[in-house]
Design goal:
Elements (H helix, E strand, L loop, with lengths): L1 H15 L1 H4 L8 H13 L1 H16 L8 H19 L5 H23 L4 H33 L13
């Protein structure tokens, strides 16, 4: 139940806070942060399910590209869950890298669909939107992780512990 509430909190952050802290058109992707963070600590299966669900909810707000967020966040959840099982995921530099790479990976796939494989449009959007957004998302992710750690909130158990 805590995971569901947290995922909706991150969606709410995207709808309310992200537009207010945007720099031009560049804003952090809070649902993506949730998927990466949750997946790293929960593993590929649970990460994939969480990615699909939060991506599908996002897709309901953009019916022209219905399914793209669900697809990209499902793959992202799996990859980050798998990577989290192989690393020391509490290290801030690794978390920042995971948030950055996760955002780039997500935007790469998303832009393939959004641009209809038009190479120039894809490259322009990738360098002007995806890269700065990934950097902003990584910084926001480190700050969110710091806040979660300071508050002592445990959204998920680390992989080494028994799961229910």
């Amino acid at each position: 139940m805590k995971v569901i509430i947290t995922s909706f909190a991150f969606l709410l952050l995207q709808l309310t806070v992200a537009p207010r802290i945007a720099i031009g058109e560049i804003a952090p992707d809070f649902p993506l942060l949730f998927v990466v963070y949750f997946s790293i600590y929960s593993g590929p299966l649970r990460g994939s399910v969480a990615g699909f669900l939060i991506g599908f909810i996002q897709d309901l707000f953009n019916p022209e590209l219905l399914g793209v967020n669900a697809l990209t966040k499902t793959v992202l959840g799996y990859v980050m869950g798998y990577a989290g099982a192989k690393t020391e995921s509490d290290h801030v530099v690794l978390l920042a890298a995971a948030f950055f790479v996760g955002a780039l990976m997500h935007d790469f796939v998303y832009l393939l669909f959004f641009t209809g494989l038009a190479p120039l449009k894809f490259l322009a959007l990738f360098f002007t939107k995806a890269l700065p957004s990934a950097l902003y998302t990584a910084v926001a992710g480190v700050l969110v992780h710091a806040a979660i750690s300071l508050l002592g909130i445990k959204v998920v158990r680390p992989l080494g512990k028994a799961r229910s």
